[in-house]
Amino acid sequence: MSDLEILYEDNHLLVVNKPAGWATMGLPQDQETLLTRLKKWLKERDSKPGNVYLGVVSRLDVPVSGAVLIAKTSKAAARLTEQFRTRSVSKVYWAVVEGHVPQSSGILRHFLRSDERFRRVHITNAHDPNALEAVLSFTQIASTGGLTLLEVQPETGRKHQIRIQLATMGRPILGDQKYGAKRSFSEGIALHSRRIEFIHPVRKQPLAIEAPIPPSWDRLPFLWSEIIKS
């Protein structure tokens, strides 16, 4: 499957490196998504006579790239979903933001309210009955050419959390014009699900899976060979 990179697969789950621009799921039946593409591929590859079961356990916004965790059985889906519910899954993102970030690391804590009409979220306060608390930590990796590369680890899994929280800090993600970015990016936005760590739902051993950065990131002014090596 030349257009999708499989990072890990066994009888219970698979992890895919989603390209920016792909919807994970949820589009009308006549529009292809990551989920429908994978089902079609598995059905053809394994010569399955019936429907292919796949359960998306972690999803990414359309303009975001990187690791997506998908269960191949309902039992694996239930066990992985429980890990997310108890916050025992670790997800690490790389984000390239506009401007310089003065601090080497930090924690962001906000309350978010979803606006389904415009498909975005807003910062609100703890007294808002629709508020959901969002917490993330970040560490600066590199800064050059008016851009800063951050490693971001969300503690909560809120919609558009990383995007709105970094924008509220005054450092929108490169290409994310929905949340105030001034500069465009060639493919989606410069937010990448870099690593996911969890316990295998059947074998019970810990797994840590990394997603290589997209080719479009090679054009950014960072020394990727040094960054990845470190």
Number of strands: 11
Mean pLDDT: 94
Sheet with the most strands, sense and barrel status: 11 strands, mixed
Query: What is the ordering of alpha helices and beta strands?
Result: EEHEEHEEEEEHEEH
CATH H-level homologous superfamily name: Pseudouridine synthase
Which class of secondary structure composition applies to the elements? alpha+beta
Count of domains = 1
How do you describe this structure in short?
With 230 residues, the chain is an alpha+beta fold. It has 4 helices and 11 strands; from the N terminus they run ββαββαβββββαββα. The protein is 17% helix and 35% strand.
Molecular structure report:
The chain has 230 residues and is of the alpha+beta class. It has one domain: Pseudouridine synthase, CATH 3.30.2350.10. Helix content is 17%, strand content 35%. It has 4 helices and 11 strands. The longest helix is centred in the first third of the chain and has 12 residues. The relative contact order is 0.18. The mean pLDDT is 94.
